[in-house]
């Protein structure tokens, strides 16, 4: 449990494994989360190429088939032709995840598979259960499985929000003979608004 002054909240954190430390950045709570929906959170409207304070929770961004046209996760596959230096023969494919179409951000994977094809991704996302602020700030961590295109979730609950998830491998799990990609822990900071307290 992090005991912080009431005017501060946890925003982002990273683990520095080489120096064995947790790096924490904080910001004023009134700049991020208030009990009412009267704070400003800027989303990037890529259709107009500008920051828009209402973009993440604009109900007009819901498409006719019920999808939300805000920040969402896509999978990009690039096929490179190693024999050609002028990029002829290269192709790219962009696909949305079929089982998770809600807004999300902060994607992460097991660092051991960085640069290789991975099966699992973890993202901060919204559950869509709140009456107001349905799409941001995030209150859910989603584990996406790429082969079967499935998703499993953990939700922080009412009046709680989550930061950026980070994957930590279990000790000894990097042994290549017994490697399991999702053998580890997801760390995330949960900000409980009603308690004005953060949990790791």
Automatic annotation (TrEMBL):
Keywords: Dioxygenase, Iron, Metal-binding, Oxidoreductase. GO terms for molecular function: 9-cis-epoxycarotenoid dioxygenase activity; metal ion binding. One of its GO terms (biological process) is carotene catabolic process. The keyword Transcription does not apply. This is Uncharacterized protein. InterPro entries: Carotenoid_Oase. Its cofactor is Fe(2+).
């Amino acid at each position: 449990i992090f005991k912080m002054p009431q005017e501060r909240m946890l925003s982002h954190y990273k683990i520095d494994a080489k120096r064995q430390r947790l790096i924490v950045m904080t910001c004023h709570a009134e700049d991020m989360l208030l009990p009412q929906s009267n704070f400003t959170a800027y989303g990037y409207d890529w259709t107009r190429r500008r920051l828009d304070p209402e973009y993440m929770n604009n109900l007009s961004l819901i498409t006719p088939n019920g999808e939300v046209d805000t920040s969402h996760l896509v999978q990009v596959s690039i096929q490179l032709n190693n024999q050609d230096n002028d990029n002829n023969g290269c192709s790219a494919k962009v696909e949305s995840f079929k089982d998770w179409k809600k807004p999300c951000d902060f994607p992460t994977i097991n660092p051991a598979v960085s640069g290789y094809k991975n099966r699992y991704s973890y993202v901060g996302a919204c559950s869509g259960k709140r009456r107001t602020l349905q799409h941001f700030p995030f209150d859910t961590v989603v584990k996406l499985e790429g082969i079967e295109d499935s998703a499993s979730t953990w939700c922080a609950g009412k009046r709680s929000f989550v930061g950026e998830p980070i994957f930590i491998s279990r000790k000894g799990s990097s042994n290549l003979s017994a490697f399991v990609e999702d053998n580890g822990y997801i760390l995330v900071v949960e900000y409980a608004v009603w308690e004005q307290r953060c949990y790791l």
